[in-house]
Amino acid sequence: MVFVESSEKDYIELSENLKGVAMPFSPSTAHAGPLPLLDTEVLRTFVAIAERGSFTRAARQVSRTPSALSMQIKRLEETLGQRLFVREARQVRLTPEGEVLLGYARRLLKLNEEAVTRFLAPPVEGTVRFGTPDDQGSRILPEVLAQFARTHPAVQVDVVVGGSLAMQRRLEAGELDLVLMTAGTPGQTAAEGEVVHSEPLVWAGRDGGVAAWRSPLPVALASQGWPWRGRALSALDAIGRAYRIAYTSEHWAGQEAAMLADIAVAPFPMSLVKSPLRQLPREVGLPDLGDYHVVLVRREGAGEASEALAGQVIRAFRELRR
């Protein structure tokens, strides 16, 4: 080891030369004391701005003024030593560091909610019998069941997957407590259901495939009674497009298989169109199918456990939209 004696003058001269030079960041020296804690209300503000893309819209959501939100974000950026938003003329967008924080913030807020619910909410016990079509269950069910098991460990959830009309009949017979249904199903009478999700219904097929260009058009459809089926056939008839029903399935997975094999195209919810499938372009000349809606129907008097699960389902669809 070599020791170099230096005078105060040498130190001052060295300090002047290093001004403006970026020094490497060291986590071990960034904070002399304990690391700061992130305030949940500030994180809630941060998430609201990130999701709304605007300080003004986020301010309305959290019932604060835009200037108050701006001060909160300024302090958060100072605490973390990172710029979190890029402010543009009509909107704000996240920086790469902001995108990283958004994931942490959502998880922290969710964990905070679970902790508060665990200690402040009265214990709920019992069994909930939950019916869902397979297209809905595949998207939200894993997250909903995992979350519900953490917040309501004493509640047993029995899940039944099937068609909307079959779910409705079992609900009316008292065999189910809570049911997700696709609105517009022939024979549906559950008009009192709450709309929890809406999205476009689109024509889909294999990317680079040829099925969409064949005549007559080969179509993969769900079985009789599914609302997508009637809507698709009515739309094709309205424009005089020749078609043939090339594939019929009880579940959307069968339609997906036909599209992947490039033997047919199908009406499909936009959120389920994943590579190597794609939404068919306008030049194919297929009619617009509009939106489809998912409703949540509760059995009257189903109980507190059923209501708690219904709340989790609604929040899961809200997150899906985001």
From TrEMBL:
This is DNA-binding transcriptional LysR family regulator. Transmembrane segments: none annotated. The lineage of its organism: Bacteria, Pseudomonadati, Pseudomonadota, Gammaproteobacteria, Oceanospirillales. Keywords: DNA-binding, Transcription, Transcription regulation. It comes from the Bacteria. Residues 38-95 form the HTH lysR-type domain. Belongs to the LysR transcriptional regulatory family. It holds the Pfam family HTH_1. InterPro entries: LTTR, LysR_HTH_N, LysR_subst-bd, WH-like_DNA-bd_sf, WH_DNA-bd_sf. GO terms for molecular function: DNA binding; DNA-binding transcription factor activity. PROSITE patterns: HTH_LYSR.
